[in-house]
Design goal:
Layout: H1 3-16, H2 23-49, H3 54-86, H4 101-122, H5 132-152, H6 158-163, H7 165-189, H8 193-199, H9 206-217, H10 219-246, H11 248-253, H12 264-271, H13 276-298
Helix pairs in contact: 1-5, 1-13, 2-4, 2-5, 2-9, 2-10, 3-7, 3-10, 4-10, 7-8, 7-13, 8-13, 9-10, 9-13, 10-12
Amino acid sequence: MFSGLLIILVPLIVGYLIPLQQTSLLKLINRLLSWIVYVILFFMGISLAFLDNLASNLLAIFHYSAVSVAVILLCNAAALLWLERSLPWHHAHRQEKLPSRIAMALESLKLCFVVVAGFLLGLTGWAFLQHATEASEYTLIFLLLLVGIQLRNSGMTLKQIVLNRRGMIIAVVVVLSSMAAGVINAFILDLPIKTGLAMASGFGWYSLSGILMTESYGPVIGSATFFNDLIRELLAIMLIPGLVAKSRSTALGLCGATSMDFTLPVLQRSGGLEIVPAAIVHGFILSLLTPLLMALFAS
Protein backbone atom coordinates (compact mmCIF):
# COMPACT_ATOMS: atom_id res chain seq x y z
CA MET A 1 0.00 0.00 0.00
CA PHE A 2 2.81 2.40 0.87
CA SER A 3 5.27 1.32 -1.84
CA GLY A 4 4.17 4.05 -4.29
CA LEU A 5 4.34 6.64 -1.51
CA LEU A 6 7.88 5.59 -0.58
CA ILE A 7 9.07 5.58 -4.20
CA ILE A 8 8.04 9.24 -4.45
CA LEU A 9 8.90 10.55 -0.99
CA VAL A 10 12.25 8.85 -0.30
CA PRO A 11 14.20 10.26 -3.28
CA LEU A 12 12.45 13.63 -2.86
CA ILE A 13 13.43 13.88 0.82
CA VAL A 14 16.95 12.59 0.21
CA GLY A 15 17.43 15.20 -2.51
CA TYR A 16 16.04 17.97 -0.27
CA LEU A 17 18.63 17.08 2.38
CA ILE A 18 21.52 17.66 -0.04
CA PRO A 19 22.87 21.24 0.09
CA LEU A 20 24.82 22.45 -2.94
CA GLN A 21 26.88 25.60 -3.15
CA GLN A 22 28.46 25.11 -6.58
CA THR A 23 26.59 27.09 -9.21
CA SER A 24 27.94 24.83 -11.96
CA LEU A 25 26.41 21.74 -10.32
CA LEU A 26 23.04 23.45 -9.91
CA LYS A 27 23.08 24.44 -13.58
CA LEU A 28 23.94 20.85 -14.48
CA ILE A 29 21.00 19.58 -12.41
CA ASN A 30 18.65 22.01 -14.18
CA ARG A 31 19.85 20.73 -17.56
CA LEU A 32 19.54 17.11 -16.44
CA LEU A 33 15.99 17.71 -15.24
CA SER A 34 15.05 19.06 -18.65
CA TRP A 35 16.50 16.07 -20.47
CA ILE A 36 15.13 13.49 -18.01
CA VAL A 37 11.62 14.89 -18.44
CA TYR A 38 11.92 14.31 -22.19
CA VAL A 39 13.17 10.75 -21.60
CA ILE A 40 10.33 9.82 -19.24
CA LEU A 41 7.67 11.37 -21.45
CA PHE A 42 9.13 9.42 -24.36
CA PHE A 43 8.71 6.23 -22.31
CA MET A 44 5.15 7.32 -21.51
CA GLY A 45 4.38 7.55 -25.21
CA ILE A 46 5.78 4.06 -25.79
CA SER A 47 3.69 2.62 -22.94
CA LEU A 48 0.62 4.30 -24.39
CA ALA A 49 1.12 2.47 -27.69
CA PHE A 50 0.99 -0.93 -25.93
CA LEU A 51 -2.48 -0.30 -24.46
CA ASP A 52 -5.27 -2.72 -25.27
CA ASN A 53 -8.18 -1.19 -27.21
CA LEU A 54 -5.96 1.70 -28.24
CA ALA A 55 -8.55 3.72 -30.17
CA SER A 56 -11.06 3.78 -27.32
CA ASN A 57 -8.30 4.65 -24.83
CA LEU A 58 -7.25 7.66 -26.91
CA LEU A 59 -10.83 8.90 -26.86
CA ALA A 60 -10.86 8.39 -23.08
CA ILE A 61 -7.67 10.46 -22.70
CA PHE A 62 -9.17 13.31 -24.71
CA HIS A 63 -12.42 13.14 -22.73
CA TYR A 64 -10.74 13.03 -19.32
CA SER A 65 -8.32 15.87 -20.06
CA ALA A 66 -10.93 18.17 -21.68
CA VAL A 67 -13.42 17.82 -18.82
CA SER A 68 -10.73 17.98 -16.13
CA VAL A 69 -9.02 21.16 -17.34
CA ALA A 70 -12.35 22.94 -17.85
CA VAL A 71 -13.68 22.13 -14.37
CA ILE A 72 -10.38 22.85 -12.57
CA LEU A 73 -9.85 26.22 -14.26
CA LEU A 74 -13.44 27.28 -13.66
CA CYS A 75 -13.19 26.39 -9.95
CA ASN A 76 -9.80 28.09 -9.62
CA ALA A 77 -10.96 31.24 -11.42
CA ALA A 78 -14.17 31.53 -9.38
CA ALA A 79 -12.31 31.14 -6.08
CA LEU A 80 -9.51 33.54 -7.09
CA LEU A 81 -11.91 36.21 -8.32
CA TRP A 82 -13.72 35.96 -5.00
CA LEU A 83 -10.37 36.36 -3.21
CA GLU A 84 -9.54 39.46 -5.26
CA ARG A 85 -12.87 41.06 -4.36
CA SER A 86 -12.59 40.12 -0.69
CA LEU A 87 -8.91 40.99 -0.32
CA PRO A 88 -7.86 43.37 -3.14
CA TRP A 89 -4.22 43.31 -4.21
CA HIS A 90 -3.31 47.01 -4.44
CA HIS A 91 -0.46 47.97 -6.75
CA ALA A 92 0.88 50.83 -8.86
CA HIS A 93 2.58 48.91 -11.65
CA ARG A 94 2.46 49.82 -15.34
CA GLN A 95 2.66 46.80 -17.63
CA GLU A 96 5.88 46.32 -19.59
CA LYS A 97 6.47 44.82 -23.02
CA LEU A 98 5.86 41.07 -22.87
CA PRO A 99 8.11 38.23 -24.05
CA SER A 100 6.87 36.22 -27.01
CA ARG A 101 3.98 34.13 -25.70
CA ILE A 102 3.89 32.17 -28.96
CA ALA A 103 7.51 31.12 -28.50
CA MET A 104 6.82 30.07 -24.90
CA ALA A 105 3.76 28.10 -25.98
CA LEU A 106 5.77 26.30 -28.67
CA GLU A 107 8.37 25.41 -26.03
CA SER A 108 5.66 23.66 -24.02
CA LEU A 109 4.33 21.88 -27.10
CA LYS A 110 7.73 20.26 -27.61
CA LEU A 111 6.82 17.92 -24.76
CA CYS A 112 3.69 16.87 -26.64
CA PHE A 113 5.82 16.04 -29.66
CA VAL A 114 8.07 13.84 -27.49
CA VAL A 115 5.06 11.85 -26.24
CA VAL A 116 3.83 11.46 -29.83
CA ALA A 117 7.29 10.32 -30.97
CA GLY A 118 7.38 7.66 -28.24
CA PHE A 119 3.86 6.58 -29.17
CA LEU A 120 4.79 6.19 -32.85
CA LEU A 121 7.86 4.15 -31.94
CA GLY A 122 5.75 1.96 -29.67
CA LEU A 123 3.41 1.19 -32.56
CA THR A 124 6.25 -0.79 -34.16
CA GLY A 125 5.64 -3.45 -31.50
CA TRP A 126 9.30 -4.27 -30.96
CA ALA A 127 9.60 -6.62 -27.98
CA PHE A 128 12.26 -4.70 -26.06
CA LEU A 129 10.00 -1.63 -25.96
CA GLN A 130 7.70 -3.46 -23.53
CA HIS A 131 10.27 -2.66 -20.81
CA ALA A 132 9.55 1.07 -21.17
CA THR A 133 7.40 1.09 -18.02
CA GLU A 134 10.17 -0.37 -15.85
CA ALA A 135 12.71 2.01 -17.36
CA SER A 136 10.49 4.99 -16.60
CA GLU A 137 10.18 3.92 -12.94
CA TYR A 138 13.94 4.00 -12.38
CA THR A 139 14.27 7.26 -14.30
CA LEU A 140 11.47 8.72 -12.19
CA ILE A 141 13.33 7.95 -8.96
CA PHE A 142 16.39 9.80 -10.27
CA LEU A 143 14.22 12.73 -11.41
CA LEU A 144 12.62 13.07 -7.96
CA LEU A 145 16.06 13.06 -6.34
CA LEU A 146 17.09 15.97 -8.56
CA VAL A 147 13.78 17.78 -7.90
CA GLY A 148 14.46 17.53 -4.16
CA ILE A 149 17.93 19.02 -4.64
CA GLN A 150 16.49 21.81 -6.77
CA LEU A 151 13.84 22.71 -4.17
CA ARG A 152 16.45 22.75 -1.38
CA ASN A 153 18.71 25.08 -3.32
CA SER A 154 16.04 27.35 -4.80
CA GLY A 155 16.92 30.05 -2.26
CA MET A 156 13.58 29.78 -0.49
CA THR A 157 13.42 29.27 3.28
CA LEU A 158 10.46 28.38 5.47
CA LYS A 159 10.66 31.87 6.98
CA GLN A 160 10.33 33.49 3.56
CA ILE A 161 7.32 31.32 2.77
CA VAL A 162 5.54 32.28 5.97
CA LEU A 163 6.32 35.99 5.55
CA ASN A 164 4.83 36.26 2.03
CA ARG A 165 1.17 36.37 2.98
CA ARG A 166 -0.27 36.99 -0.49
CA GLY A 167 1.59 34.14 -2.19
CA MET A 168 0.61 31.74 0.57
CA ILE A 169 -3.06 32.78 0.55
CA ILE A 170 -3.32 32.36 -3.22
CA ALA A 171 -1.67 28.93 -3.00
CA VAL A 172 -4.18 27.82 -0.34
CA VAL A 173 -7.10 29.05 -2.47
CA VAL A 174 -5.74 27.22 -5.53
CA VAL A 175 -5.30 23.98 -3.57
CA LEU A 176 -8.78 24.09 -2.02
CA SER A 177 -10.55 25.00 -5.27
CA SER A 178 -8.57 22.35 -7.16
CA MET A 179 -9.58 19.70 -4.64
CA ALA A 180 -13.23 20.74 -5.05
CA ALA A 181 -12.76 20.45 -8.83
CA GLY A 182 -11.20 17.02 -8.37
CA VAL A 183 -14.30 15.77 -6.56
CA ILE A 184 -16.56 17.26 -9.26
CA ASN A 185 -14.45 15.64 -11.99
CA ALA A 186 -14.66 12.27 -10.25
CA PHE A 187 -18.46 12.38 -10.41
CA ILE A 188 -18.61 13.70 -13.98
CA LEU A 189 -16.03 11.22 -15.31
CA ASP A 190 -17.23 8.31 -13.14
CA LEU A 191 -13.80 7.91 -11.51
CA PRO A 192 -12.90 7.10 -7.89
CA ILE A 193 -12.73 10.29 -5.82
CA LYS A 194 -9.08 9.66 -4.97
CA THR A 195 -8.28 9.48 -8.70
CA GLY A 196 -10.09 12.76 -9.34
CA LEU A 197 -8.22 14.40 -6.45
CA ALA A 198 -4.89 13.06 -7.71
CA MET A 199 -5.54 14.39 -11.23
CA ALA A 200 -6.35 17.81 -9.76
CA SER A 201 -3.12 17.87 -7.72
CA GLY A 202 -0.77 18.57 -10.63
CA PHE A 203 -1.31 22.36 -10.41
CA GLY A 204 0.09 22.78 -13.92
CA TRP A 205 3.35 20.87 -13.31
CA TYR A 206 2.73 18.65 -16.34
CA SER A 207 6.29 17.35 -16.64
CA LEU A 208 6.00 15.69 -13.24
CA SER A 209 2.27 15.09 -12.72
CA GLY A 210 1.83 13.08 -15.91
CA ILE A 211 4.77 10.86 -14.97
CA LEU A 212 3.59 10.27 -11.40
CA MET A 213 0.03 9.53 -12.49
CA THR A 214 1.24 7.09 -15.15
CA GLU A 215 3.17 5.19 -12.50
CA SER A 216 0.15 5.07 -10.18
CA TYR A 217 -2.85 4.77 -12.51
CA GLY A 218 -1.48 3.75 -15.91
CA PRO A 219 -0.87 5.58 -19.18
CA VAL A 220 -4.51 6.58 -19.82
CA ILE A 221 -4.96 8.61 -16.61
CA GLY A 222 -1.30 9.67 -16.72
CA SER A 223 -1.59 11.03 -20.26
CA ALA A 224 -4.90 12.75 -19.44
CA THR A 225 -3.26 14.44 -16.44
CA PHE A 226 -0.27 15.48 -18.55
CA PHE A 227 -2.46 17.18 -21.18
CA ASN A 228 -4.68 18.69 -18.48
CA ASP A 229 -1.72 20.42 -16.82
CA LEU A 230 -0.08 21.34 -20.13
CA ILE A 231 -3.25 23.05 -21.37
CA ARG A 232 -3.44 24.88 -18.03
CA GLU A 233 0.02 26.36 -18.55
CA LEU A 234 -0.64 27.34 -22.16
CA LEU A 235 -3.88 29.09 -21.20
CA ALA A 236 -2.15 30.86 -18.30
CA ILE A 237 0.50 32.25 -20.66
CA MET A 238 -2.20 33.65 -22.92
CA LEU A 239 -4.44 35.00 -20.14
CA ILE A 240 -1.91 36.58 -17.73
CA PRO A 241 -1.54 39.98 -19.48
CA GLY A 242 -5.28 40.60 -19.56
CA LEU A 243 -5.98 39.23 -16.09
CA VAL A 244 -3.24 41.16 -14.26
CA ALA A 245 -5.03 44.48 -14.73
CA LYS A 246 -8.35 43.11 -13.45
CA SER A 247 -7.34 40.45 -10.92
CA ARG A 248 -3.70 39.91 -10.02
CA SER A 249 -4.63 37.03 -7.72
CA THR A 250 -6.34 35.21 -10.59
CA ALA A 251 -3.44 35.85 -12.97
CA LEU A 252 -0.99 34.37 -10.47
CA GLY A 253 -3.19 31.51 -9.26
CA LEU A 254 -3.96 30.14 -12.71
CA CYS A 255 -0.21 29.68 -13.29
CA GLY A 256 -0.11 27.04 -10.58
CA ALA A 257 3.26 25.52 -9.79
CA THR A 258 4.83 27.10 -12.90
CA SER A 259 4.68 30.60 -11.38
CA MET A 260 8.18 30.10 -9.94
CA ASP A 261 9.76 29.18 -13.27
CA PHE A 262 8.15 28.97 -16.71
CA THR A 263 5.39 31.59 -16.38
CA LEU A 264 7.43 33.86 -14.07
CA PRO A 265 8.81 36.05 -16.92
CA VAL A 266 5.28 36.79 -18.15
CA LEU A 267 4.11 37.51 -14.60
CA GLN A 268 7.05 39.85 -13.98
CA ARG A 269 6.56 41.77 -17.23
CA SER A 270 2.81 42.03 -16.70
CA GLY A 271 2.67 42.55 -12.93
CA GLY A 272 6.02 44.13 -12.09
CA LEU A 273 8.75 43.16 -9.66
CA GLU A 274 6.40 43.29 -6.68
CA ILE A 275 4.55 40.20 -7.97
CA VAL A 276 7.74 38.12 -8.14
CA PRO A 277 8.11 37.19 -4.42
CA ALA A 278 4.46 36.11 -4.26
CA ALA A 279 4.88 34.16 -7.51
CA ILE A 280 7.95 32.32 -6.24
CA VAL A 281 6.34 31.46 -2.90
CA HIS A 282 3.11 30.40 -4.59
CA GLY A 283 4.97 28.21 -7.09
CA PHE A 284 7.26 26.78 -4.41
CA ILE A 285 4.35 25.70 -2.20
CA LEU A 286 2.46 24.07 -5.08
CA SER A 287 5.63 22.41 -6.41
CA LEU A 288 6.20 20.92 -2.98
CA LEU A 289 2.58 19.79 -2.64
CA THR A 290 2.24 18.22 -6.11
CA PRO A 291 4.24 15.00 -5.46
CA LEU A 292 3.06 14.81 -1.84
CA LEU A 293 -0.66 15.07 -2.66
CA MET A 294 -0.37 12.71 -5.62
CA ALA A 295 1.47 10.19 -3.48
CA LEU A 296 -1.18 10.54 -0.77
CA PHE A 297 -4.13 10.01 -3.13
CA ALA A 298 -2.40 7.23 -5.04
CA SER A 299 -1.36 5.23 -1.95
